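Exercise 7 asks you to align residues with tokens for two separate proteins.
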Amino acid sequence: MDTILYLARHGETVDNANQIMQGQTQGELNENGLRQARELSEQWKDREIDVVVASDLKRSVDTAAILAAPHGLEVVTTPLLRERDWGGFTGRYIPSLKNEVWPDDIESLENLLSRAGEFITYVKKTYPGKKVLAVGHGIINKAVQAVYYKKSMSEISRMSNAEVRELVL
């Protein structure tokens, strides 16, 4: 039996709304993000879910807790699903970064894709045959899909906050 990975992005945060590069900061869901998570939870309350996994960053854990509640499940966290580390760009206003030279302390694409692959392996080995709802972030979720579909990151469409995509592992 296949493992089903429902890959979700956390609800909108204060920094998302303000176009601030969050990277591996904890982040805080704003009112819209809480609403998005509650609406998704309502949509998914009758779906079969065996496990809820989240990035260990607060914005994902908080979203996952809302999604897990109707199922009576605890949230399992993993740093494998953390957002890309944006180094010196963390905390900066995104539109102002357009023509900037990337600092050396940004997590490499190779490392990001490697982590994404490790996450897929972790889910397959830890939860064989289960339905796993995993709450991550925009860029790491894109990397997970790039590895899964064997495509480049640019070929994967951006996920909206509280969007879910299904991968059969």
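Second protein for Exercise 7:
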Amino acid sequence: MQFVKETSPHIRRKDSLMWMLLNVIIALLPVVIWAAVAYPMPMLRIYPLALVTCVLCEFIFILITKKSVKEFKIENILSALITGMIYALCLPTELGFASGTGYFVVVAGAAIGIILGKLVFGGLGNNIFNPAALGMIVVRLFWGGISGNSADPSIFVDPSISAGATSLQTALPATNLLDLFLGRVPGALGETFHIAILVGMVYLLITKTIDWKVLVSYLGSFIVLTLVAGLILQIKGGDNVCYYALYQLLSGGVLFGAVYMITDPVTGPVGDPARVLFGAFAGVITVIIRLFAGTEGVGFSILFANMIAPALNYPQWSSSRWKKWHYIAGGALAGVALLAVILPLALK
């Protein structure tokens, strides 16, 4: 018997890791093109800088650990490019570039994200945190004062619409859902034009680059909880429940995070039941953060889900078949999630 030592992701595929990474880059291209058209100047300032920073950090890491330039392989380059692409597309367009601060913010967020989220764990295939999500969170926590807003897309100008935090606690603005779907509202570089994201999602699913179970469980738990919250608010005189749920789904980075971030096979668990629980947990956390913190919860929810992935990879949990503890954990998660949404809104 021959044993082959490989790094994660441990996915049974006919194609190679290189093609898997290339598929992600191809799926990101529609979003990149949209961002370049809608936000040409912010894209020119943010995108190349994020990519160069991630690739350079990866290169320096290989030099330090492997002691040879030859060890800097195409997979390392592609992986770093993906991190830089996703990180850049999650950033708001207004980062204080007039004073020069924005350039430092982009570099610092990218470097911290890829170093602390990936390289300190051993590099490609060994990280437990999504580096793009970590970089985005670092920017919003450390430089929230200059990264809270985004400008209108250059091809759509509607001064009556302004970008801000998404909250389940306040009345929703009178925004047309079609405008949200088509990206005719301010937002992060790559999170607003949902057609481009859906095109990328279809490509990733067709090529089996991502696991549909994680995607469906994340979006499913998010939609169910927002419908429950919307129903309570409608009873109390708020917005229509369907409009409310669709607004929450199309605002912020929910769909972008569901397609390109939570489905990362390296930072997710092994086994179908564990992946369903992983995605559902992230969806629940997203809604709870929006509910209680009044801010976007996608990035935080991904990092929280990354933290429980090792527990879900425990041998008894990583089974490919559903067992009683999977059902118990799923039921407990559903019960806690419903109570966390219903009680605060009902008692308020």
